[in-house]
Amino acid sequence: MKSKFFNATLLTVIISFLSGTALAGDYKENPFTLVYDGAITENVKGKVNIHPATYKLNGLDISANVYTPANYDPDKKYPAMAVAHPNGGVKEQVAGLYAQRLAEQGYITVAADAAYQGASGGTPRNVDKPANRIEDIHGMADFITQYPGVDADRLGLLGICGGGGYALKAAQTDKRFRAIATLSMFDSGLVRRNGYRDSQLSTIQERLKKASDARAQEAAGGEIIYAADTQLTAEQIANLPFDLYREGYIYYGKTHAHPNSTFRYTMSSLLALMRFDAASNMDLINQPLLMMAGSEAGSLYMTEKAFEKAVNAKDKELFLIEGATHIQTYWKPQYVNQAMSKLKHFFGKNL
Predict the structure, then answer these.
(1) Residues paired with residue 226 on neighbouring β-strands, in sequence order
(2) Number of structural domains in the chain
């Protein structure tokens, strides 16, 4: 009875989200198409400003936003930060929110769309291979360390959700990143392989066969097959078994929707995703490490697993954002403020 009442209540909430007109941030109403609360709407002298940029990475055009701190002077030196976005996300969503908030603390920050995704180049669209996402992070370092005013010796890295898993991998070998933080880290390989919270262990081989067939079809010049390409009704969303997916559909589909953001990815990407493990080789990280996650997040187990393996990280800390679920760390002010307070102390100490 309690479960039925919960689902009915949740369905009512979801329908109100999906049918209502009020959004947390409507991309059409922001000149930079930013969709988070408090987003910059114009560049004002003496305040944090945003600078859309495009740079090359392995022959592809990468679309980025650079945020400069208040009273930015290109002749001075500032610490810098690269911010890696979640799976399916784009720079105008949570990555932009944290990049802007970090710029408010005096950092020059960059949030860039992954290659093959968002406004960045690359075909077929929405390829989602770990090697590409890790290279994206190296590319952000290449770009931002050359930006006027950046002190390349004070470069930090923040990875959010899937971007957190890829940030760990990039930082294992890229020592330009002097300090690393993750928020709601999501191990894309573990989840694509085993399912979220090991919910798809029985179908691993079946899904690998589909991915293999999809690659064969691509190689033969056939149609690109996509995974996670289904539009769900409000009732279907309410019946999803995990809050990460229920809240994620609302965040990405309504309240913080952006036309460049999508859950879909090429089915053939699973060949690379399912052999990836964000928590492997964590002993290579010898930089300061902060890993943050909501205390109520179903995804917390991924952060805990990687954190435990970071045996050589300096001043490592696991910080729980009390009361938060995974998606709530993206936008809810009380949880964003907790994360930002911790980031201010961590990066202030280490950069």
Answers:
(1) 266
(2) 1
pLDDT of residue 187: 98
CA distance 315 to 309: 14
Measured CA to CA, the distance from residue 177 to residue 40 in angstroms comes to 27
- Per residue in 180-204, pLDDT (tens digit) is 999 999 999 999 999 999 999 999 9
Residue 2 has pLDDT above 80, yes or no: no
Residue 183 structure tokens? 């928020």
pLDDT of residue 21: 38
CB 35 within 8 A of CB 254: no
CA pair distance 36, 23, nearest whole angstrom = 10
Beta strands in 201-313 (DSSP E): 226-227, 265-266, 288-294
E strands present in the chain = 49-57, 60-68, 78-84, 108-112, 150-160, 177-183, 226-227, 265-266, 288-294, 314-321
Q: How far is CA 21 from the centre of its chain?
A: 26
On whether the CB atoms of residues 347 and 179 are closer than 8 A, the answer is yes
Contact 200, 194 (CB under 8 A): yes
**Which residue is listed with tokens 């965040």?**
251
User: How far apart are alpha carbons 186 and 193 in whole angstroms?
Assistant: 13
Q: Which residue would you say has higher pLDDT here, 69 or 3?
A: 69
Contacts of 191 by beta carbon, 8 Å cutoff, 6+ apart? 302
C-alpha angle with apex 266: 261 to 272, nearest 5 degrees?
Answer: 110
- Report pLDDT digits (tens) over 313-351: 999 999 999 999 999 999 999 999 999 999 999 999 999
CATH at residue 196: 3.40.50.1820
Q: Which two tokens stand for residue 131?
A: 């090697």
| Cβ pair 55, 44 in contact under 8 A | no
200 is in which domain, residue-wise?
A: 2-350
Residue ranges in 105-203 assigned as alpha helix (H): 130-144, 162-173, 188-194
Q: Which of 189, 27, 174, 176 is nearest to 96 (CA)?
A: 27
Distance CA 276, CA 173 (A): 16
- C-alpha span between 258 and 245 (Å, rounded): 17
